[in-house]
Design brief:
The chain is an alpha/beta fold. It is globular and about 90 Å long. About 1% of the residues have low confidence. The chain has 17 helices and 13 strands. The N and C termini lie far apart (80 Å). It folds into two domains: 141 residues, Ferritin (Up-down Bundle); 282 residues, Vaccinia Virus protein VP39 (Rossmann fold). A nine-stranded mixed β-sheet has the order 3-2-1-6-7-9-8-10-13, sandwiched between helices. The chain has a two-stranded antiparallel sheet with strand order 4-5. A two-stranded antiparallel sheet has the order 11-12.
Length: 492
């Protein structure tokens, strides 16, 4: 199958779920089935290779050393395919058996979908799903890792488009992801962390960027934490299906229970890429004031907005020598009064390297404007004591309710950051002292003229004001005349 055929085939599975479950729940069933089919077909492929090597020795072909994952007897895709009754129970048992046989790699990877709930998915629906996935082999020969990985990403986007308000929970605009990883510039052997990793797109892109550049991507170590069980499972499956094996994704609440620790302290990383949930209100503000991991570096954020709790967690998790981060935020984090003192301390730390204002609609199902906060614990000499502001508001392509960064947009923004350039009406380099004079505001339009404001000098604006006054007077006269006519018509 060519890429488009593969994507159409995989997305076709969703048609069997329509009318049975909400679109937001498709991923709970489709992704585990896809992964189950993939590892079963690859296991068969590995058996065939081992059989050729051993002149048909069946015992040799089943040795664990010949397989990436172990599939216990009775837990293969073909075993489940034979079932026509209690199919959900058979699927659940097979997946649990595979997890148990591969505890270090696959424990919990299939999530917790309610396979046995026949009120939601009856035997007929599940048989149809299994038969749909059985139409094609998904082994490495037929579907290489790159192709399946791309198709998996396609499915994630399709589920995001279909599932409405839940989309942002597990999907970040991939064109923004590309810009973020370019700026972060991961190198072989480095560690990359996403504290709210969703489906793992930011982490994966760091590895794929190295791979595309012909660099050794397999030495990159990827770490993530995700609060949602099914989303964390999707992230792990995403890694495996892209051929990434050196990763650790833990489940849990990053703010209350950070899951990546070393010697009872937060583990630190070379790079952090993140798109945290914005302005969450349900978080333990009281515990933050005496955080055992020392993450309250700049203070305690307001209860109604945990943004600076995530940002401080990120800052504390950066390697002190060369740690750097690129974080996607809504614009409010740059100027809100309630966070002014924390923002001032962040600016004084001289770790803020750049603020990049992006355009509207880059978040799913939200027209809000976004920005990239770029920090670096090892700023170069020429960047110390300064912050680069880039106004890339117009560097987008609008498509219905979502916007994208095309390659020319990405290159323009990235090259400006890389070269540390001042470009008229696009970028400006501002000293920390100057920023502190504005109550530590990081609002880009304070330092780079906004394209949304019309250029005009005093000579230009006076005629505009006079015209506005004239039009206002005419409007008043028209309203008065209309009121008189209405009164006259009513005999008043």
């Amino acid at each position: 199958m060519i890429q488009q055929q593969l994507e159409k085939y995989l997305w076709g599975a969703a048609t069997y779920l329509r009318g049975h479950i909400d679109a937001g729940d498709y991923k709970q069933f489709i992704f585990p089935l896809l992964f189950f089919k993939r590892i079963s077909d690859v296991w068969d492929e590995e058996c065939e290779l081992a059989m050729k090597e051993s002149d048909g020795d069946l015992d040799y072909a089943s040795f664990a050393e010949n397989h990436r994952f172990q599939i216990p007897e009775g837990a293969h895709w073909n075993d489940v395919r034979q079932k026509t009754q209690n199919v959900g129970r058979a699927l659940q048992a097979a997946m649990q058996a595979i997890e148990k046989a591969n505890p270090d790699q696959l424990f919990g990877v299939f999530g917790d979908a309610s396979w046995t709930n026949k009120d939601r998915l009856g035997d007929e629906t599940l048989v149809n799903l299994v038969e749909h996935f059985s139409k094609h082999k998904l082994n490495l020969e037929q579907v290489p890792q790159d192709e399946l990985g791309n198709a998996y990403e396609y499915l994630i986007k399709q589920f995001a488009d279909d599932s409405g308000h839940t989309a942002a929970e597990f999907y970040t605009n991939r064109t923004v992801v590309r810009l973020m990883t370019l700026i972060a510039d991961p190198q072989p052997g480095e560690t990359v962390y996403d504290p709210t990793c969703g489906s793992g797109g930011l982490l994966l892109n760091a590895a794929l960027q190295l791979k595309t550049a012909g660099k050794e991507y397999r030495t990159l170590k990827l770490y993530g934490q995700e609060i949602n069980l099914i989303t964390s499972s999707i992230a792990r499956m995403n890694m495996f299906l892209h051929g990434i094996e050196d990763f650790q994704i833990v489940r849990g609440n990053t703010l209350s229970h950070p899951g990546l620790l070393e010697n009872d302290e937060l583990k630190t990383f070379n790079i952090i890429l993140a798109n945290p949930p914005y302005s969450i209100k349900a978080w333990d503000q009281k515990a933050w004031a005496s955080d055992p991991y020392g993450r309250n570096l700049w203070g305690t954020p307001p209860q109604g907005c945990a943004d600076y709790a995530f940002q401080q967690h990120i800052h504390k998790s950066l390697d002190q020598q060369n740690g750097r981060c690129v974080v996607l935020w809504p614009h409010g984090i740059l100027f809100r009064d309630s966070e002014k003192d924390m923002r001032r301390k962040m600016v004084l730390s001289d770790t803020v390297e750049a603020i990049i204002a992006l355009g509207k609609n880059l978040f799913y199902n939200s027209s809000m404007e976004s920005c990239l906060l770029v920090c670096n614990n090892h700023k170069s000499k020429e960047r110390k004591g300064k912050v680069l502001f880039i106004n890339a508001y117009n560097e987008i392509r609008n498509e219905k309710t979502i916007s994208f960064l095309d390659e020319p947009h990405i290159k323009k923004i990235y090259n400006c950051f890389k070269d540390y350039n001042e470009i008229l009406d696009f970028s400006n380099i501002v000293s920390i002292d100057e920023i502190l004079k504005t109550d530590a505001s990081l609002h880009v339009t304070k330092y780079v003229k906004s394209s949304r404001i019309t250029d005009c000098n005093d000579g230009d604006i006076k005629p505009l004001i006079q015209e506005w006054i004239k039009e206002s007077d005419l409007l008043k006269q028209s309203i008065s005349s209309t009121i008189k006519e209405l009164k006259s018509a009513n005999g008043n």
